[in-house]
Amino acid sequence: MSATHTLNWNESLVLGDARTDHTHQEFVDLINATTAAPADQKLGVYRDLLNHTVEHFAMEERWMRACGIPEDFCHFGQHASVLQVMKEVERRALNGETEYIGSMIEALVEWFPGHAETMDTGLVAYLQEKGYDTTAEAFKEGALASTEADLPSCGHEPGQAC
User: Fold this and answer.
1) Can you tell me the distance from the alpha carbon of 138 to that of 133, in angstroms, rounded to the nearest whole number?
2) Is pTM, for the whole model, over 0.85?
């Protein structure tokens, strides 16, 4: 496997929320499985990665909505952009242009650690602060839903555009 097409699961990707960490480790494993897949199986494994990513992002977005985070928050936008490109790669690969899968994997390998270490770290901290249980997908007893006034960190300085 090419080093630019693989990710190593390491402590910097562990965010301290069991459900998030499990989902992220599955994502990393699927990136690596896509890279390792023989050419005749690569599209199928890539589609597994795409389906996982759709569910992964939908899960995080349910949590954000439950906490009152508006859909114009940059975390939602990053998810939408990644999925748009992943789906275009799938469309092209279904038409025989499978070479784009490798480029997509390389882009995900470059993008994901930064996303996890900034946006997802901020989201996990925010959910924990607000008492949101990601396993139950509900607020713990006595916790209050948040308002837009106290959004989680997305890795940018206050007032800086995403």
Assistant:
1) 5
2) yes
Q: What is the dihedral of CA 72, 70, 160, 121, to 10 degrees?
A: -110
Closest residue by Cα to residue 63 from 119, 1, 2, 13: 119
Nearest to 40, CA basis, from 106, 108, 105, 93: 93
Cα dihedral value 136, 127, 81, 159, nearest 10: 160
Q: Give me the sign of the Cα torsion angle 138, 111, 119, 22.
A: positive
pLDDT at 157 over 80: no
Q: Residue 134 contacts by C-beta under 8 Å, 6 or more apart in sequence?
A: 17, 18, 19, 20, 63, 127
Confidence of residue 141 (pLDDT cuts 50, 70, 90): confident
